[in-house]
Please model this.
Amino acid sequence: MHKRILIVEDEASIRDMVAFAVHKADMEPIHAEDAQAAQLAIADTVPDLILLDWMLPGTSGLEFARRLRREELTREIPIIMLTARGEEMDRVNGLEAGVDDYVVKPFSARELIARIKAVLRRIHGDDEAGVIDIGGLRLDGPAHRVFAGEDQVRIGPTEYRLLYFFMTHPERVYSRSQLLDHVWGGNVYVEERTVDVHIRRLRKALEPWQLDSLVQTVRGAGYRFSGNA
Ligand code: CA
Model:
């Protein structure tokens, strides 16, 4: 699954340069020229990471970062701030606002991509290869495959996205509506019981290896992926 990178930058030339680099690195760039456009883009699909320009017209980058950290849906999306030289003084403010990293302009495409990958690895706890192993279940992100021991587990695309989300956010309870937001995207009209249907399919796919117990029902709250039975 391609990582979606939301680029919030008012200068079209920089935005295009960044988008090109992101695309070349096998990730999906999403463009936004200001905070308002970014908000709409997020409502459509929650990105995996946000590149946020410090100096934006209207809502500043810092203000927007604070707002993202306050909201449930966007609280955990990693943010890399793009700052101009001289704005480094404000880093403390940025760290207080929950920004994950900084890149100072002018930056090279290579530097930026390296920072993006480092933050994603740190956030998701992935190793170099993007392989996650929890409770005997192994998800190979780059290969887009799931294994139980040596056996490949066959699952559908939605179950894969659901499992990917669970395995990058283990040991935490998510409500049906949170899962809808994160896995299906905020603007898609899907009923909450759709989540139950895909949870059932995911468990069924894991059943032959007795790994279905990794997907736990938390009564009255939602679902949790846990390596601890
Ligand atoms: Ca700017």
